[in-house]
Amino acid sequence: MAKSTTNTAKVSSISVRMYRAGTGDFFLLQFKKGRTVSFNMMIDCGCINGGKDDFEPLVKDLKKITGGTIDLLVVSHEHADHMNGFEKCKDLFDKFKFKKVWFAWTEDKENRFANSIRANNSKMAMALNTATQKLGAYLDTGHFDKQFKNELKGEFMLDGKKHFIQSLAGLNALNVVKTNIPGSPMPTMEDLLIEYNIIKPGTVVEFLEPGDVRGDIADAKGIKFFALGPPKEMKHLSNEADNYTKREKKSTTEFAFLSALAEDSMESEASRLPFENEYESIDKNDPIQQLYNNGNDWRKIDSDWLLGAGNIALKLEKNINNTSLALAIQFEESEKVLLFPGDSELDNWESWHKGLEWPVIINGKTENKNAEYFLNKTVLYKVGHHLSQNGTAKAKGLEMMKSADFAAMVSLDFNKIQSGWLNTMPNDLIGAELIRKTKGNVFFVGDRNKILPNIKTNRVTIRHADEKALHQANAPFDGKPFIDFEVKE
User: Fold this and answer.
1) Biggest CA pair distance of the chain
2) In angstroms, how far is the first alpha carbon of the chain from the final one?
């Protein structure tokens, strides 16, 4: 569609295209003045375990609909399910023109604090990768099979060990950068996008901080962009527990993932984390662990620190998710907001409410508004962290979204998902509340007929009318590689 030649008209609508690469974010927002597209904004390009075949037809569609020009690219954070498409299709993206790219302040190499954060994450990423490789090698050589062969309950322990290793590998797969020089910061996303042919000479790169406002863009006149997170000071992260509780049972898929450790036997800190308890290192007081040790040090090899990699994986995953650039995109006149929080976890969400205010022009006058204002005005919510319980705040998040025109888009797909993620995705409480608040206007990347039954647990009630409306809203996109939704001024 041709772009407008006038800079005076205001944006009258935003068309949001959610591409169906799998469990991961890949969005195109087209700002329109009347029927004419004036501004193309892209947010992320990723899918867990996605290959070139998954992305190529979608990137070609992106090229067709935009003409290969992206006015603004936002990369929320560095996890593979948000940016591995750039690497997989770098030959195709080389033919695009990206005018401007936004990252969070945590990617700024001129920021000493950001460098220290990445250096710390780099150490954890290297440790996780090493542990994953070592444990995988033990598994491949049959070491654990021999170790537990004649043990009491050996088969049970072997299955548990295999599940832990597979789960750890799944978390390790999130990290785009697997190795680095010890003690040095991880490469920034800017470094990676230069390598992937996204950022070229002439591309403007900016790093946004919470409280930042961007606007007065001629081709996006009438639109303001507000940076909500990530927090600038990590001391503001509180990890408050007032949130949606974890699923009681795992989700299921048609290929039925099985695990000897499927039962959640205890409540722990992991109940508020995005993945399952099995990722944590085994408790020394656990009867299985005691049975395994039984006073025989020779059995441990270096498994003690290797099993501790579960804690490292959870900490690293949380650290990186909480560096997500969270944006509120607002129509100045109607005050409607499109909320894109990346994979912000609760710490990031909480930080928006800690003394931050943003200048908003209302009826020609500037007023300072807090995070609750933007949540009250949200009409489209890109659901955080693929509908897991830690990706959407409750009291300071979803409960504040009160618009009568509310809709939600969920980047969850059972055909492309890590098995461990089924322990939290989809969260039934959040899913049911979204369906209620939107009156069924919830859109899924994946097959709703597989996802919806996993939201309809005995903990929730979904009105028949809302469920019917959900199917009607999604049906026009069955079999299509994307879902379109339009927000009008």
Assistant:
1) 78
2) 20
